[in-house]
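for ur thesis appendix - Aminotransferase. copy paste whatever u need, i formatted it the way the template wanted (i think)
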Amino acid sequence: DIKLSSRVQRIKPSPTLAVTALAAQLKAQGRDIIGLGAGEPDFDTPESIKQAGITAIREGKTKYTPVGGTVGLKKAIIDKFARDNGHDYKPEQILVSCGGKQSFYNLTQALLNEGDEVIIPAPYWVSYPDMVLLADGKPVIVTADQSQHFKMTPAQLEAAINSKTRLVVINSPSNPTGVAYTREELAALGQVLLRHPNVLVATDDMYEHILFRGQTFCNILMACPELYPQTMVLNGVSKAYSMTGWRIGYAAGPVEIIKAMTNIQSQSTSNPTSISQEAAQAALNGDQGCVEEMRAAFEKRHDYLHKALNEIPGVDCLPADGTFYLFPGMQGAMQALGYDNDIDFSSMLLEKVGVALVPGSAFGLDGHMRLSFATSMENLEKAVERIAKAVQG
Ligand code: PLP
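the 3d part is after this line
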């Protein structure tokens, strides 16, 4: 009998990656499956960014770099923060990692002792609670359901904070709901956090550039600049530039925390891939037209899917402010068909009509489905038709 650590037994594999893998497996068996589980843009990485990677290989930029990122990429990140967010950072306040995932992982490892609490509003990105558990911390889930537009209120935040609280996570626009906090809402949450200067806030800005209806991006530090000494800004190139496979994310914040996170990284992965860093630098410094092109396509698909879903009986879907996800409430449809949990309901949709979705409970809120519209309009139309058929029995 092989004995595994208690640490690894606390966590589960990413459910979103699992749905994608199951859909791929069924497809390989010849089943006609429409996958709406994917958490990545369906576009190719823009050509100029690819070329930067190819040039990096040709020029021999294929060796170790500084653990925390090359001088050039850190400068591009600092410029990006100044340009897009009005944030002022020095190179020693930046850490480049192997995707946004590693950024958050490093943060939890650098910050948490056993029993330290991390406030995570639900619905949440699937990895936050498990990464907190891996760091011996305790996820404190604050439920923000559809009636409050999936947004944590200042009163909920205040009530969740105690002497063990180390970190609060805010992801806006959000995976899985697509909903974004307004500047005023962020400022109000910020007022609560200013009363607790020992509590850090991590703002996960991964979907910053995918916003609809002309909305402009705001994070909690932009809304409340006094939070600078207690804020970690997390971002990356995966979603904005369709670079998920390149694995580049970055974090910015107080020097001591970035230094500790860099130490963790120096004893795990070391630097992210040298070639990917060159490509990410080109992405951040280059023409941003490609970002707008993808954003516009996502908005068009969003508008179609949001309307079409609401036309299905028993489905109640809020519009998204951004991202490429919708998170409709399916309670009506589930009840009508006699389902009491969304996991069985999503299995039925996969089995019966070949549509792969991720159940809301994977994100901490039962009764919903996350649909990714990072796929063609044709696939979305087919998926809607099939879901409607399944729901109508
Ligand atoms: N944060 C959020 C909210 C995400 O949805 C994702 C990816 O799904 C990430 C971070 C991490 O992205 P990556 O590790 O691919 O850069």
